[in-house]
Amino acid sequence: MNRIIGMLLGVLVLAGCQDSPKKKYKPQSIGAINTVAVVMDNGLWEGQVGDKVREFFAAPVLGLTWDEPEFTLEHMPPSVFRGTTRHRRAVLYVSKDSINGAQVQDDLYATPQKVGVIKGATDSALIANISSFAPQIKNAIRQMELQESQDRFLRSLSKETVLKDKFGIGLRLPSLYKVGKQEDNFVWIDREIQKGSMNIIAYQLPGGFFKNDSTLVRDIIRMRDSIGEAFIPGPDVPDKITYMGTEKAFAPYVMPAEIGGMKAVEVRGIWEIVNYPMAGPFLTYIINDPERDRLMVLEGFTFAPATNKRDYMFELEAILRTVKFDTVVSVSP
Questions:
Q1: Number of H helices and number of E strands within the chain?
Q2: How far is CA 299 from CA 57, 185, 260, in A?
Q3: For the segment 226-276, what is each residue's pLDDT rounded down to a tens digit?
Q4: How many folded domains does the chain comprise?
Q5: Does 175 share its domain with 304?
Q6: What single string gives the DSSP state of each residue in 42-63?
Q7: Residue 274 in domain
Q8: Using CA atoms, how far apart are residues 155 and 146, in angstroms rounded to an integer?
């Protein structure tokens, strides 16, 4: 009898396993970083609704030497959005519908994937919803793209420990980046690209270095210029001193940020070589590290003449945003 009961229980367990729903497989998403597939009717794309999409999603990136769009938009009508085309990592779907509103859906057809959906009954309703919901959709896509870039770094990470040894920090740094220069309080890491280089520098300042909010921008420029003069020389020019400074014609953008779980200031602007015609974009994070009573400064900048720099700067941002601080161990007296 016990044997029969055991067999029946076994059959019931197997039957339960067969009836349980299987986890649906999602293919790997595809697409270039910072490229959004915009799915909407041709008439909408070519009219005011399309203009509003471009106004928000192709807005110029802050702090570049010339205008480049935040996202590269690739339009396609809904009839084309099928099969592997649905596996695009970033999608914006805009359509007329009796439903009015917008949402962001995760991993709808592939993974990772963000699908921003905007609907409205009329052109004016669509335009209003784009204006209202574009910032939310853009932020979701941007965070996904940063994570995607950071995950790609894992394919080949640098084993360099100079940042940990000098400053007690770690970065998810691709192996293409090499240490080019290091001093007591300065590290310069770079990688070669087709027409120039991508660069990361790191140094620290005393915790109370910035004392007045009203002069913050001016003090940041002074800080960058002094570091450039001390550590980042420009080309040799007879009877002139050349070094990296901050472009004087354009004040940098300064905004609050959070990096590595700590409060920070994000600075975007244009660097120049003093006394030499050379310039490019930079991104600086000034991170408050109260446990060490210091400000940790991380900066990425690109030198790439006559070349679009959006994606280079995005990669540098993705790297800098992986920073992790070693735990400070307090010793009791």
A1: 7, 15
A2: 26, 14, 14
A3: 999 999 999 999 999 999 999 988 899 999 999 999 999 999 999 999 999
A4: 2
A5: yes
A6: HHHHTSHHHHHHHHHHTPBPTT
A7: yes
A8: 15
What residues contact 118, with CB distance under 8 A and at least 6 apart?
92, 93, 94, 95, 102, 126, 129, 130, 133, 137
Alpha helices in the chain (DSSP H): 2-19, 42-45, 48-57, 123-153, 162-167, 216-231, 310-320
Where does the pLDDT of residue 23 fall: very low under 50, low under 70, confident under 90, or very high at 90 and above?
A: low
Specify the amino acid at residue 106: D
pTM comes to 0.89
Tokens linked to 231: 């550590």
Q: Which of 121, 153, 185 is the last residue of a domain?
A: 153
Domain's final residue, options 92, 118, 153: 153
Domain assignment of residue 266, given as a range: 162-325
**CA within 13 Å, CB half, 202:** 23
Residue 318, sorted as left (phi over 0), alpha (psi -120 to 50) or beta, turns out to be alpha
Q: Which of 132, 117, 128 is nearest to 48 (CA)?
A: 128
Q: Hunting for tokens 């970033």 — which residue is that? A: 90
Which tens digit of pLDDT belongs to each residue from 195-233? Answer: 899 999 999 999 999 988 889 999 999 999 999 999 999
Q: 174-187, pLDDT tens digit by residue?
A: 999 999 999 999 99
Residue 162 vs residue 19, higher pLDDT: 162
